[in-house]
Specification:
heterodimer, A: eight-stranded mixed beta sheet, B: 622 residues, alpha/beta, six-stranded mixed beta sheet, 35% helix, globular
C-alpha cells in the first residue's frame, strides 16, 4: 500500500458519468473542489472510496472516478464503518445531506462520530429535501413553507455542528460550497485527521431553498456575517476586523464587542483554541441574525484513538495471546471423547 | 409407564434403554448450569443424547414465581437420540412453582426429586397451591424423593465459611450430585469445570464440589423409596471417532469460521443483541485470533449495512438476528441483492409476531425468509436441521454467498441454537475449498461482468488498481453497470437476478430420502429442527410396518430440482411445521399437490408422539 503514488490530476478523479444535478446547484462547486484536492492527498485512487446514502448529495460517488457505493437512505455511515473495519488501508469518504444524515440516518451519525471511525464525513446542508421535491428538513428554519408544511414548519431545527459535538465528534468543521479556497484546505485538514472528521458544508439549493445562505456568502455582507476561525487567533469579524467575541464570565456566553469602544482591546477577546471543547460548543451554537456564523475548524482533538485503529490493535493483542488460528484445534476444544 | 420400571434382576442396579431427566427451578437456581454439567458427564459416559434448555425471558424473575421457572431437559439412551424426549422419567424440582409447571410431563411411576425446604407457605401460595402437595395425595402416582436440600447443602459447605446466601447457591450442585449417583455418572468433569469457573474464588469452587459429593453420597447412604436405585443406561452404538458436545450456536459460529477459511476470505460479523441470536456474536467475538472482525452495531439496520460494506471491501460480510431484527434488515438485504454482493444473514427464529416469545422456538419466519422484502428480491434460503447440522449449513451459506454473489438467508431456531448434542468432530481438511477469485484484470473491466455458468457478478474490491467503479441501489445497465432507467434494461436485469437464484438448484445436491423408500403411501416432509421428532416418529411407525418415509429439506429456495419428482412417488404428503403452515403452502402452490399440514405453535418443539399420531391418522391406522 505504500508504493509511490503516480502524479494524478483532477481529470483522473472525474468519472465518465454525466453530472445530473440541477443547473446552479452548489453540489457542482463542491464536486470540483474535491476532485481538485484529491491529487494533492498523495493517496492512490484505487484506495479512495466514496460512500453515500440517498438524496441529491448522495449522487456524489457516481461522479468520482474512485471506488464508490451509493447505498440506502441514511445508512452510509454504517456501510462506511463496515468498509473501514474490514480494510483500514482504504481512505473512506461519506457524503450525506441534512435529511439523509440527520433525519433518517441520525442514529448512525451519532454512533459513527462517538466511535471515531477513521473517515471523512461531508454533510451538505441545504436545509431542505431536494430529491423528493422540496419538503422541509431537520435543519429547516421554523416557519419554512414546503409541500408538507404549507402553513409553515413547526419543529425546531437542529444545528449539525452542535449535533456532531454532542455525539462526541473529535473533528468538527464548517465551510461553504462555492468557496473553494476555504473548503479545499478544510477538507485537507479533515483528511489528515485520524478519526471521524465531520464537515458541514453550507450548500445552496437553487430550486427549493434558493439563497438561504446569501447573507453569509455575499461578499458585501460576509464580513459581518462570517466568523472565520483561525487557531490561536482572536475571534474577530466585521469590516477591518473591528468586532470581536468576548466571554461574559457571568452568563458564560459569547458576546459581541467592538474594539476600541469602552477600552476594549484584542486582549479581551476569546482566542480560538481548536482543542477546547467548551469553546467549540459555544461557537457551534452561534447563528444569524444575533451572531456571525463560524467558518473553519471548530474543534479538533487529535489525541483521541480512532475506532478502526483500536479494532486492529485489539486483534493483534488477541492473536499474540492465543496464537495462530487453527480451526481443527478450535473444534476439538472443551471436553472430547473417543468412540472406538 | 416409566422407562425406569424396566428393571432387571440385579439387586440395586436397574438397566434401562433410555431416560428423560428434567431439572426445574427458579431462573436464579442454576438449572441450566446443572443441566449442562449433567450433559457433559452423560456424553462422556457414552450415551447418545439430546437436550432442551427451556428458560423464561425474565433474567431474574421474582423468586418462586411460576413464570420464572427455568428448566433443562436431557434425553439420553443406548440408541440414536434425536429429540429431547416426550415424557419425563426423572423430574427434579427446586420449588413449588417448578413442581406445578412441570409435573404434568412426569410419567406415572416417574422419579420426583423435591427440595422440601423450598415448600414454604409463601412459595406454595405464590405457585398457586392451597396446601402442600407433599402432604396430600397429589403426588401418589410418583416415586417421590423428598430431600431437605437446603439443610443438606448448608451442612456440606459449612467448612468453607461462605455466607448463607452463597452457601444456599450450591443447592443445584448438590442436586446434580444426587442425579449423577442415580445414573452412575462420573463427577470428575463437573469438578474440573467448577475449579475452572471459580478459579479466582477457590472457596466457592470447593464448596460447590463438596455439594456435588454430598449429593452423591446422599444417594448412596440415604434410605430412598423402594424402586429407586442406580440405573444403568448402556452405551449407545455410534460411529467411531472423536466427539464433543455442541449447541447449534457454537456449531454455527465454527461453521462460519470454516466458511471464511474455505472461501479464503476474512469475515466481518456485524450484529445487534437480540434473543436468541446474540450468543452467535458472543462466540465469534472470542475468536478474534481468526480472520474475523466482530462489530456490535447500534441497531439491526446498521449491522446489516456494515456487513454489506464489509463485503464491498472484500471481506465476507455476515449479520445475524431473530425475526423482528430480520424485518429491520430487509431494506439492506435487498440492496445486497441489487448490488450483487455476498452476504450471509443468520435468522435464529423465535416465537412471534413482534416480541412474541423471545426464548421459545418457532419456524414462523419461513415466509419472511422467502418473501419478506420489497420488489422482486429473491435470494437463496437454507435451513439447519439440528445443532450439529448448523456447522455444515453455515459452510454452505458461505459457499452460496460468494459463488453466486448474493445474500443468503440461513434459518436456525431457538431450539437448536440452545440445545446440545454429541458431535462427531469434523476435519476441516475434508471440506472442498471454494476460494474466491477477485477480479484483477483492468482491461475491458466492467462491474456488470458475469460468470457465464453461475451468472455471478464479478467481485472487484477497492484497493485494486484500474478497477475503480461505482455500484449502488439504482438499476444498473446490464453491460456497463452504470445507472440505467431504460425499460428493457430493467426487464433484463430483473430476469437475470431471478435466473441466477433459480439456477442455484443446479449447484446443490439432489434431495435424498432421510428414511424409508422413495415411493409409498405417505412421506413426512420436514425442514429445520423438526428433524429429530420426525425421524423418531417415522422410525417407530416403520417398526410397526407402516408405509411411511421421511424427507428433510435443507434448501428452501431454490428447492432441489428433483423434489417434485420425489414427492410424486407418494400418495400422501404430510408437512409438520412449528408455524401455521408456511412451507406446506409453498409445496402446494409450486407443485399443485394436496400436501397436508401438521402445525404447532406453542413455543415448544414437536413431541415424537404428536407426529406419530398424525402419521397414523394420515394412514388411517387405529
Amino acid at each position: 500500500m505504500n508504493a509511490p503514488v503516480p502524479e494524478l490530476t483532477v481529470k483522473d478523479f472525474s468519472s465518465d458519468q454525466e453530472v445530473r444535478w440541477c443547473p446552479g446547484c452548489g453540489d457542482y462547486a463542491i464536486l470540483k473542489t474535491v476532485q481538485k484536492m484529491m491529487p494533492e492527498l498523495g493517496v492512490a485512487k484505487e484506495n479512495q472510496v466514496f460512500v453515500s446514502g440517498i438524496g441529491c448529495s448522495s449522487r456524489f460517488p457516481y461522479y468520482m472516478n474512485t471506488y464508490g457505493f451509493h447505498t440506502i437512505h441514511g445508512r452510509a455511515p454504517s456501510f462506511a464503518t463496515g468498509i473501514k473495519i474490514s480494510n483500514p488501508d482504504l481512505d473512506v469518504w461519506v457524503v450525506t445531506g441534512d435529511g439523509d444524515g440527520l433525519s433518517i440516518g441520525g442514529n448512525h451519525m451519532v454512533h459513527l462520530l462517538r466511535r471515531n471511525v477513521d473517515l471523512q464525513l461531508l454533510l451538505f446542508n441545504n436545509e431542505i429535501y431536494g430529491l423528493t421535491k422540496g419538503q422541509y428538513s431537520p435543519t429547516s428554519k421554523v416557519g419554512t413553507t414546503s409541500p408538507s408544511t404549507p402553513h409553515g414548519s413547526l419543529d425546531m431545527p437542529l444545528k449539525p455542528c452542535v449535533f456532531a459535538l454532542g455525539s462526541g465528534a473529535k473533528f468538527v468543521a464548517r465551510s461553504i460550497d462555492t468557496e473553494a479556497k476555504h473548503l479545499g484546505p478544510v477538507l485537507k485538514r479533515a483528511h489528515s485527521f485520524k478519526g471521524a472528521s465531520f464537515v458541514e458544508i453550507y450548500q445552496n439549493c437553487p430550486v427549493y431553498n434558493d439563497g438561504i445562505f446569501d447573507q453569509i456568502k455575499d461578499k458585501k455582507t460576509a464580513a459581518e456575517t462570517r466568523l472565520v476561525l483561525e487557531n490561536g487567533r482572536p475571534l474577530t469579524f466585521g469590516v477591518d476586523g473591528q468586532k470581536g467575541l468576548r466571554l461574559n464570565a457571568k452568563t458564560l456566553a459569547l458576546e459581541i464587542v467592538t474594539l476600541g469602544e469602552d477600552g476594549i482591546t484584542e486582549d479581551d477577546l476569546v482566542v480560538h483554541d481548536e482543542t477546547n471543547k467548551v469553546l467549540a460548543q459555544l461557537l457551534a451554537n452561534l447563528k444569524l441574525p444575533e451572531y456571525p456564523e463560524p467558518i473553519g475548524v471548530i474543534y479538533c482533538d487529535s489525541d483521541a484513538p480512532s475506532y478502526t485503529g483500536e479494532v486492529y490493535n485489539q486483534r493483534i493483542v488477541v492473536r499474540e495471546d492465543k496464537g495462530e488460528p487453527d480451526l481443527n484445534a478450535l473444534l476439538r476444544t472443551g471436553h472430547t471423547w473417543t468412540v472406538e | 409407564m416409566s422407562a425406569l420400571e424396566e428393571t432387571n434382576n440385579q439387586v440395586g442396579v436397574a438397566e434401562v434403554a433410555d431416560v428423560v431427566v428434567r431439572f426445574a427451578g427458579d431462573s436464579g437456581d442454576g438449572m441450566q448450569l446443572t443441566g449442562s454439567n449433567f450433559t457433559e458427564a452423560t456424553a462422556l459416559y457414552g450415551n447418545d443424547l439430546a437436550t432442551f434448555p427451556d428458560f423464561p425471558a425474565e433474567i431474574r424473575a421474582p423468586a418462586g414465581a411460576t413464570f420464572g421457572v427455568s428448566a433443562f431437559q436431557i434425553y439420553f439412551g443406548s440408541q440414536d437420540v434425536t429429540t429431547a424426549g416426550d415424557d419425563v422419567d426423572v423430574l427434579v424440582v427446586m420449588n413449588p412453582a417448578a413442581l406445578i409447571t412441570n409435573i404434568k410431563d412426569l410419567v406415572p411411576g416417574g422419579v420426583l426429586v423435591v427440595d422440601v425446604d423450598s415448600f414454604t407457605d409463601k412459595n406454595l401460595t405464590r405457585a398457586g397451591y392451597s396446601g402442600s402437595p407433599l402432604e396430600d395425595d397429589t403426588l401418589d402416582a410418583y416415586r417421590v424423593i423428598p430431600v431437605e436440600i437446603s439443610k443438606q447443602v448448608l451442612e456440606a459447605v459449612k467448612p468453607y465459611g461462605l455466607s448463607h446466601k452463597f452457601a444456599v447457591r450450591c443447592k443445584n450442585m448438590w442436586t446434580l450430585g444426587l442425579v449423577m449417583w442415580l445414573f452412575d455418572r462420573d463427577r470428575s468433569v463437573t469438578i474440573e469445570n467448577l475449579k475452572k469457573k471459580f478459579a479466582s474464588k477457590p472457596e466457592i469452587a470447593e464448596a460447590n464440589i463438596a455439594a456435588v459429593n454430598a449429593g452423591h453420597a446422599y444417594g448412596e447412604t440415604a434410605e430412598l423409596p423402594s424402586g429407586v436405585e442406580v440405573y444403568k443406561v448402556p452405551k449407545a452404538d455410534v460411529a467411531p471417532g472423536l466427539y464433543r458436545n455442541t449447541t447449534g450456536t457454537d456449531a454455527l459460529a465454527y461453521g462460519l469460521l470454516a466458511g471464511g477459511q474455505l472461501a479464503n476470505l476474512p469475515i466481518t460479523f456485524a450484529s445487534y443483541p437480540i434473543t436468541p441470536a446474540s450468543s452467535l456474536l458472543h462466540t465469534l467475538a472470542q475468536q478474534k485470533h481468526f480472520d474475523v472482525v466482530t462489530f456490535q452495531a447500534e441497531d439491526e439496520i446498521a449491522a446489516v449495512c456494515a456487513a454489506i460494506g464489509a463485503s464491498f471491501a472484500g471481506s465476507l460480510g455476515i449479520t445475524s438476528s431473530s425475526g423482528p431484527g430480520i424485518s429491520l434488515k430487509s431494506e439492506g438485504i435487498s440492496l445486497a441483492a441489487a448490488t450483487e454482493l455476498p452476504l450471509v444473514v443468520v435468522n435464529t427464529q423465535r416465537g412471534g409476531p413482534s416480541t412474541g416469545l423471545p426464548t421459545k422456538t418457532e419456524q414462523s419466519d419461513f415466509n419472511q425468509a422467502l418473501f419478506g422484502r420489497h420488489a422482486d428480491t429473491t435470494l437463496p434460503v437454507i435451513s439447519a436441521s439440528s445443532s450439529v447440522d448448523c456447522f455444515d449449513v453455515a459452510v454452505e451459506a458461505c459457499r452460496l454467498a460468494v459463488q453466486f454473489m448474493t445474500p443468503v438467508m440461513l434459518l436456525s431456531d431457538g431450539y437448536m441454537a440452545n440445545a446440545s448434542e454429541p458431535w462427531l468432530v469434523p476435519d476441516i481438511n475434508s471440506y472442498e475449498p471454494f476460494h474466491v477469485d477477485f477480479e484483477k484484470e483492468a482491461d475491458g473491466f466492467s462491474p456488470a461482468k458475469r460468470n457465464k455458468e453461475t451468472l455471478a457478478r464479478v467481485w472487484a474490491k477497492p484497493g485494486t488498481p484500474g478497477l475503480e467503479h461505482r455500484i449502488g441501489g439504482i438499476e444498473k445497465d446490464v453491460k456497463t453497470g452504470d445507472i440505467s432507467y431504460d425499460p428493457e434494461n430493467h426487464q433484463e436485469m430483473t430476469n437475470i437476478r431471478k435466473k441466477k437464484i433459480e439456477g442455484i438448484s443446479e449447484f446443490i445436491p439432489e434431495q435424498s430420502m432421510a428414511m424409508g423408500p422413495d415411493k409409498g403411501k405417505l412421506v413426512v416432509v420436514g425442514w429445520g429442527s423438526t428433524y429429530g421428532s420426525i425421524h423418531q416418529a417415522v422410525k417407530r411407525c416403520r417398526q410397526e410396518k407402516l408405509d411411511v418415509s421421511h424427507i428433510h429439506v435443507r434448501y428452501l429456495n431454490p428447492l432441489p430440482g428433483n423434489l417434485q419428482d420425489l414427492l410424486s412417488g407418494f400418495e400422501n404428503v404430510l408437512i409438520p411445521e412449528m408455524n401455521t403452515g408456511q412451507f406446506v403452502n409453498l409445496i402446494r402452490s409450486k407443485f399443485l399437490i394436496d400436501a397436508k399440514s401438521l402445525s404447532k405453535v406453542s413455543g415448544q418443539p414437536f413431541k415424537i408422539r404428536e407426529i406419530e399420531f398424525a402419521i397414523k391418522s394420515a394412514l388411517e391406522v387405529k
